[in-house]
């Protein structure tokens, strides 16, 4: 059994919770409030910058060239692929990149990235891969679910979102993230596997909180300047 099969059993209930979340369902149905989506776009842009640092740490800690290449592929996919999608969406709403970059990350956003960066800097390459996994895999899981539930995406303003995360490029990136962790976890003692599992469960819980933060448009109570 692959390590990711074991992980699936521990996160399945949390991930099914995403599918019932009004923000996620609204993306598929096309009914999501535009301001909530813009909140996600801004928060996610700065999230992805911090998330990208993880893969740079992973490349540094990688035991061999092949692993370095996999971390680098994910890094490139995020900085140049996924963030380009965010820029394109923002432009449609008349939001410039400068405005995206001014976003002050919310408390949940900060807690999530700090948690991952903390584990990534303390742990080995497998810990870094564990930090990355829920993000890549759960968006692909959500995208695939939404195309199945809402096959007619013609009039959905979030069609591009659904297409992107269920599409070939992201399915491939997710495959890389899964293979990376499966390979790095191989031969590890049970105690270490449990620690990796704990990271994947915690990041899965943070993913839920991130959706909820966007649904509630949570930000700091006082909009101080950065
Ligand atoms: C909070 C949050 N979680 C996950 C993703 C999705 N995601 C992050 S990295 C990656 C793979 C390579 O870009 C994917 C699909 C997101 N955008 N925001």
TrEMBL record:
TM spans (from-to): none
Pathway(s) annotated for this protein in UniProt: Cofactor biosynthesis; thiamine diphosphate biosynthesis
One Gene Ontology MF term: thiaminase activity
EC numbers on record: 3.5.99.2
Keyword Hydrolase annotated: yes
Thiaminase-2/PQQC domain sequence ranges: 8-214
Record carries keyword Hydrolase: yes
CDD domains: TenA_C_BhTenA-like
Assigned keywords, A-Z: Hydrolase, Thiamine biosynthesis
Domain of life: Bacteria
Record-linked Pfam families: TENA_THI-4 (PF03070)
Oligomeric form and interacting partners: Homotetramer.
Function per UniProt: Catalyzes an amino-pyrimidine hydrolysis reaction at the C5' of the pyrimidine moiety of thiamine compounds, a reaction that is part of a thiamine salvage pathway. Thus, catalyzes the conversion of 4-amino-5-aminomethyl-2-methylpyrimidine to 4-amino-5-hydroxymethyl-2-methylpyrimidine (HMP). Is also able to catalyze the hydrolytic cleavage of thiamine; however, this thiaminase activity may not be physiologically relevant. Therefore, is probably involved in the regeneration of the thiamine pyrimidine from thiamine degraded products present in the environment, rather than in thiamine degradation.
Name of the protein this chain belongs to: Aminopyrimidine aminohydrolase
Native organism: Jeotgalicoccus aerolatus
